[in-house]
Amino acid sequence: MTMLDEVGRVGGGETVARWIATSLDQERFESWVCATRWDEAQRADPVVAGFLEALADRGGRFLGLPRDSRLAVGAWRGFVSGLRRERIDILHAHLFGSSFWAALLGPVGRVPVIIAHDHNWSFEGQASRRLLDRHLISPRTSAYVTVAEESRRKIIEVEGLDPDHVRVVKNGIPEVETSGRARARAALGLADDAAVIGTVAVLRPEKSLDVLVEAVAILAPKRPGLRLLVAGEGPERPRLEELIRARGVGDNVTLLGVRHDVPDLLDAFDVAVCCSAWEGSPISVIEYMRAGLPIVASDVGGIPSMLEAGVEGVLVPAGDPAALATGIDGLLADKPRRAAIGERARERQRRDFSLDAMIRSIVELYDELWLAHGRETS
What we know:
The protein is α/β, with parallel strands linked by helices. The chain has helices spanning about 10-20, 45-55, 75-85, 95-105, 125-135, 150-160, 180-190, 210-220, 235-245, 260-265, 285-290, 305, 320-330, 335-350, 355-375; strands at about 1-5, 30-35, 60-65, 90-95, 115, 145, 165-170, 195-200, 225-230, 255, 270-275, 295-300, 315.
């Protein structure tokens, strides 16, 4: 059973959870999905509707828990009885909230293998999070999965988890066909020769999109017509809108909101940017790589292990608008370099960050943990 808070959220962790649930071999796995914060109105969301259809097409089953509060004891009682009744073998929980509940209730539901899958967090502050990871989630799960070696190192050093318990499964994405540059730009009203940079991110503080706006303010005077496209929505929108006004770059920056056509949208970019303050293994960067885009990214978290500096991308210090502007400007000024870096990034994605590679790693982990359970109970 795949377990996550909300199936419709567009964050990387939720996206990976959906891909796993709909990509497992039907001959070997009966795929269940549990959304722990469910409301029937969510079915109107195109992301949710598409996912539920794909899951049903593969013979999967969906359980939505109608929780209107954090405790909602009645919903959890039904969840535990369902685990027992259906004899769930593997409970794979994504992100902290679901991992907490899986660790707490999975053993009560007699689930043999429980996996906590962490996708990204800063390891700073939130002492309660560290304590729960160390004293509840890790001891009551079969494995604690993270998405990058750097995240694994921090989990071990900062949280004190057993190194043998923490595993790395690299994120991977499926191949897609796109509409091409001309159509993508035409749909956005962009000239073919316009300099376009872009990013895809939930508008949260850790994505540091204010740094990108400041970088555009530095570049705009020397690059008339420069455009920044930001795809995503979130709580930082009002602050970003105010900053865009304050810096006088309203003609340069467009906040596109949530987009369900990201692969096509990326065809419009000349340079893609990830300027986060911290990251694990961001799906957005892997999508940029798949699109063959040259990338300027913060030198944080798992990103340096994804992009070799100067070869598959340009890495800059986090929180430094001037350095970010310099990295972007250098790529915009050199089309052959952009093409070479983008092609090497595409090759790296196909080799290391494909959906098939991620699913193989997940299945290998499932098999290993299931066999270990058999040995423990024999």
